[in-house]
Amino acid sequence: MTAGSDSAPIVRSYDFKHPARVSRDQMRVIEALHENGTKILGSTLSGVMRAVVDVEMAFIDQTTYREFIASLSNPSASYQFTLGPMHGGAVMDFELPLVYGLVDRIFGGKGSSAGIDGRQMTQMEMFTFAKVVIRAIADLEALWEPVIPDVNMHDIELDTNPEFMQVTADNEIVVLVALQVKTTNMSGLIRLCYPFFTLEPVLPRLAQTAPLPRGRRDRTETRARNRLALGAMDLPAVVELGRTRLSVGSAQSLRAGDVIRLDAGADDPACIFVGGKPRFLGFPCALGDGEARAGNMGVQIAGRVPPAQAIHYGEDG
User: Any residues with CB less than 8 A from the CB of 314 and at least 6 apart, and which?
Assistant: First the structure.
């Protein structure tokens, strides 16, 4: 402003606590990419729910990583992953009512989480929901593919306590995208957190207009790695020697030393249940002297349960 000029200076507000490190144009492109991605994710979740699922953009914002973590529930269903090829971290968080509703529907329920408190997920729920996460991550890859042709999301890890999730520094600026998921019996948010340093290498690629996502490419190798990453959790394994039926009177009269006749022969293989489902057939054996727990019983796997026999063990396919 020159001396003697009558024009007033232009004053613009600036938030030093939340500096806008991603420009408005770049934010609009990121929003448009996720708007297009809602159609893909909605189709995936509709297949899981076997019902119509609506996925819409809820909001997009820039905030600090500390405030993002503070907005999450504890316990949570937060999956941190590496966004390649930039090798930066990111987070996909599912609200717990959404998780419990999806798991309920997978197991044949109505897909409702009503009456369920914000409790910790069980091992079975983690294992079941991991399959949904794998498909959601694949959709996220398809979403970013127009901007990052060689996109690869890997090293997926579940964190149920957001306070221990260290993807970036607390004061680092992140782009927060929230997607609203709605069905007849439930609704919830999926939050996507992209730290600035993760997006920084691709920000120059973002044009004024967001391109439409291309068709999915083959991600067999990536999905296999994701399954391995999400499969690193404990599941109960039970070996069943045989079955039989007893009348109520016979069951009440059982005493120590009684012998119960089973429907399996002495040379028949036992069924091995993993996570409550019949998966393998095997033969009981005793562990040798060289084993870590010498003297314990073991089971030698002979093969998978044939589909024709799975129904006998209670597997509905």
Answer: 278
The residue among 268, 282, 260, 273 whose CA lies nearest residue 313 is 273
SS3 state of residue 46: helix
The pairing of beta strand 187-195 with beta strand 173-182? antiparallel
Of the listed ranges 16-25, 177-186, 276-285, the least confidently predicted one is 16-25
- Alpha carbons 236 and 231: distance in angstroms, whole number: 13
Q: What is the C-alpha to C-alpha distance for residues 30 and 14, in angstroms, rounded to an integer? A: 22
Q: Are 137 and 145 in contact (CB under 8 A)?
A: no
- Orientation angle between helical segments 220-230 and 123-144, nearest 10 degrees: 150
The number of residues in the chain equals: 317
- Put simply, whether the predicted model's pTM sits higher than 0.70 gets the answer no
Alpha-carbon gap, residue 48 to 177, rounded angstroms: 23
pLDDT for residue 55 is more than 90: yes
Domains in the chain, CATH or no CATH each: 24-230 (3.40.1550.10), 237-310 (2.30.330.10)
Tokens coding 21: 């490190």
Contact between 286 and 295 (Cβ < 8 Å): yes
pLDDT in tens, 256-304: 988 988 888 878 888 888 877 888 888 888 776 655 555 678 888 888 8
